[in-house]
Amino acid sequence: MIQTIIRSLLQRRHFWRYASFDEVAELYASRMMRLLAQFMINLFITLYLYQHGYSILFISIYFALSFGFRALIAYPAARYIAHFGPKHGILAGNLIYIPALMCFTMVPQYGLTAIVLFGFFQSVSMVTYDLSYLVDFSKVKHVLHAGKEIGYMQILERLTASLSPLIGGLIAFLIAPEATMLLAAVLFAFASIPLMRTKEQTKLRQNLDFRGFPWRATWRSIVAETAVGFDTFASNGVWVLFLTVVVFTGSANDIYLKIGAFASITALTSFIAAYSFGRVIDWRRGKDLLRIATVANALTHLFRPFVNAPAGVVAANITNEIATTGYSMAFMRGIFDSADNSGHRIVYLFFISVAMNLGAMLACLVLAVLLLVLPSVTLAMQLFFVVAGLYVLLVLGARFNLYRS
Known about the structure:
Layout: H1 2-10, H2 21-51, H3 56-84, H4 86-104, H5 107-110, H6 112-140, H7 146-174, H8 177-191, H9 215-247, H10 254-267, H11 270-303, H12 310-342, H13 345-373, H14 377-391
Helix pairs in contact: 1-2, 2-6, 2-7, 2-8, 2-9, 3-4, 3-6, 3-13, 4-6, 4-8, 6-13, 7-8, 7-10, 7-11, 7-12, 9-12, 9-13, 9-14, 10-12, 11-12, 11-14, 12-13, 13-14
């Protein structure tokens, strides 16, 4: 049904593409269901651990190990995708998340054992899925209108993001957090079905060949991707903990509803932004968008330490949504162009995956060090956002060939 709706809404605007619209609609539909499940629980993972007695220091070290593990398994994941194709990688990534959620519901009973198993399955799922999605989308997109297609995908993602946290928070509040995880597991099971109706777009049984890789043209974007990973953990992990400890103090399940509702409301603001930014990119103003949105994102992080009331949460979330949508779309367009012209699509996107996870791991380690050397958790998180605001400026050093004038 989702695929039919997407086809009816967007097919007339995609008449120029060389891949069939069915293939794009299937990717959009699968992505929506995956993100519906993922966004329902992503905001609440750190909160769930914190509510069950695990310190913020433990959480930061745990996720540092998790992101480090993801960087290590990116290579076997890339080899799997090269051999079997990205659609099979998406299928595997979705199905592997199901045992991860089953393990996470057992944290109250089995403690560290359940957390380790959850981290293992989640890491394999995230790396395999994210890399498969990048490879598949970079192949089926249309070169001349990639900005618009990224905009459509962002609109669908923002629609999903505006619903998922509220749904997840409401279920956690009315029933239990574990019920949200079980529903997410069901959605992961259905998320791969749309993509299995058409053949793979990439050549199968490939080997990863690093010979002749264009390091000179790509190394800056790979390094800049570490800032994307740093930013992701800052916004999805540390920000949730900051709201829990500083703004919405308390331990009851209504905290899930509060954080979910604020995330959903502010996600709506990025609808118009996503469509507009896509057109800006196709009008060859992506370089300006990347610069302005990156600086705005940095300023948002610098504003976060001063938030102590719901009004500040709304302001920070709205600016973060718009800024993140802007810089991520422009950055992603540059990545896809680099992948297209590198002659080593999967290898380049493999390095992007490694860099993102290393950046997220660095963010976790920075938070852990601040927690160890500073006298209070609140001060440590406030200073962390200052570091995040400075580090994300590294995105400006990407130097994509697409944006060179």
